[in-house]
Amino acid sequence: MNTGIIGLGDVQQLLTEINNELAQRPLLPTTVAQQIAWLRSGSMGEIGQTTIFTLPFFGNRAKKRGIYEEVPATQPELAKFSISHDEWAPDAELIPKFTKAVDIHGVIQNNAPTILMQSQIEMETQLADLIGLGASTTTVYDNKNFFATDHEANPNRPGLATFSNYKTGFDLDYTNLSVALDLLDAVPGPDGNPLSMPGKNIVIVSTGIQEGKARKLLNGEIIASPAGTASESNPLKGRADLLKLTRLRAYNSGKFWAVVRVASDKHRPFMLSQAMPPQMYIDGLEFDSHSNALRGTARQGWRSVHGLGYLWPHLAVGCVES
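The structure assignment produced for this chain is given below.
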């Protein structure tokens, strides 16, 4: 009797259930990408294709009007950001023929959490690389690096106002964290006025030393006075959340940190488009498959079709410690 052998239909059903759950929740809520990137999922693009993120960009300032004046109109301004999709997948893992014969169902169930966690780590790694290269990567927003000292507030109206979102020789301390948060408050919008977009502030660090400093600054009730001779109430307490993105330590010798603002689902500093969220696969179960015919083995792994990109430089300040 073959009562110990699981039918292939059951295996495919298990894969379908796993992948349906992934499609509904493509990123874990605890990932940094989920918390700071504008996330779009679904069939918005295939491998090699580009998807466009478009938002209105209101650049008209208010003006004093005459009581009988007809208010003129202008063409709408739009901000367009784009991402190119690529397929991402690690090398597949082989499942030996005797294992797949007796316990393929158990292999899939036991390996699924590890394989799927690997896909989440890959997203975090790619996001860290995106942030870490921000000071040397030109973006479509204003043809400047994402982290730069001379951004145009409105590239459609050069010279209206400029802003800086990059600080070097900038240690993670009370004064500099206060300055970074103030830059997010004072950054000019498309009409030249302060954007003043409310939202959640997030401090991003990469090392344990940075994390310890940030926790004291953001959570401590009492801190040392600027002169260092006394203690005082901490006005930074509760001003921002803290996230650790370990891969960022690969940049600037582990001295990079950042402050970002999440103002809405779409007003965020980065974007992630997933044409196909991470999906688990098993190849080679069929007797006439290539790997089965040649080696008597099956292959398992995950694949994703996605792209990461830069969004609003107004909502991020990149900092490098001295």
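Interim note for the steering committee: Residues 97-132 form the longest helix (36 residues). The chain has six helices and 16 strands.
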